[in-house]
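Repro:
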Amino acid sequence: MKYVKHKIFTIGAFEQEEKWLNEMAAKGMLLTDVGFCRYVFEEGTPGKYIYRLEMLENTPTHPESVAYIKFVEETGAEQVGSIMRWVYFRKKAVDGPFDLYSDLGSKLKHYRRIHAICNIMIPLELLIGAINMSVAIMGGGVGGFREISSQVNISVGLLCLGLGIWFICISSSIYKKIKVLKKESAIRE
């Protein structure tokens, strides 16, 4: 039987998402498909799979990503699904530990990809928010639609400004993880 669960995870909370998926798997709820804030599970053997997530450099259909996914699948893992550049893998637990990062360098690259996306979104969201707030303050809109337009601009502006601040928080959290990994890498060298 299939079950659909809706849950929201931030771009920087992939470790919590991974943990949740593995907790679900331990209960016998095996992930079979993913969508935006949507997870499809089917009942199965508890603890059968270990799940891992990775943000690829390119979309999953890009030739480099296709080659990488094929490489991961050759290790015994399988791709469960993808959302934008995020790919969801699983591997049978009986096959032993499952880690997508063979060294600190590859883990550091993964965090840098996430950090780069956040750093693109921050100025974009703040700019869109500021433009909408400016239009609302200046009384943009036409005729009788001026009041409605102003309310829409304020709402969109506040939403975008909030998202910009949210991305700043995520970015700083990821940056802290990058600093820790850099220090760890320097110690090992």
